[in-house]
């Protein structure tokens, strides 16, 4: 389990195969993001659909929400289906956890 200020990742939420897929998908999403915007309670990531599919984004959210149920997720499809946005928010302290887990620099 990864911990930090009351937040943790439930490593038992996914089996070994699911964890491996989720890890690869997380790496792909973080490497493919076109823009990261800091919000008051979290972050918004933007992706070009030529690199990341809506199915991949929803797979990420489905697994991530099982591991980290304290995150709130919002997916948006914009610009005639060419832009995907993932909003990730949470209670006080969740943003610092996100910053550490997703290797985001202070913005």
Judged by helices, strands and strand pairing, the structural class is alpha+beta
Largest sheet strand order: 3-4-6-5
Low-pLDDT windows of residues? none
Taking the sheet with the most strands, its summary is:
4 strands, antiparallel
Please give the number of β-strands: 6
Q: H/E series, N to C?
A: EEHEEHEEH
What is the share of helical residues? 25-40%
Overall mean confidence score, pLDDT: 89
How many distinct helices? 3
Intertermini distance: 26 Å
Specify Rg, calculated over alpha carbons: 13 Å
Strand content: 25-35%
Tell me, what's the shape?
Answer: globular
Describe it.
The chain is α+β, with helices and mostly antiparallel strands and 107 residues long. It has a domain of 74 residues. Helix content is 36%, strand content 29%. It has 3 helices and 6 strands. Strands 3-4-6-5 form a 4-stranded antiparallel β-sheet, with helices on one face. Strand 1 and strand 2 form a beta hairpin. The chain is globular. The two termini are 26 Å apart.
């Amino acid at each position: 389990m990864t911990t930090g200020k009351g937040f943790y990742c439930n490593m038992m939420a996914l089996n070994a195969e699911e964890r491996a897929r989720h890890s690869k998908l997380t790496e792909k999403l973080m490497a493919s993001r076109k823009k990261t915007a800091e919000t008051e309670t979290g972050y918004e990531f933007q992706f070009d659909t030529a690199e990341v599919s809506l199915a991949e984004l929803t797979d990420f959210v489905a697994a991530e929400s099982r591991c980290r149920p304290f995150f709130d997720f919002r997916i948006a499809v914009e610009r005639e289906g060419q832009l995907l946005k993932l909003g990730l928010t949470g209670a006080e302290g969740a943003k610092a956890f996100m910053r550490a887990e997703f290797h985001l620099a202070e913005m």
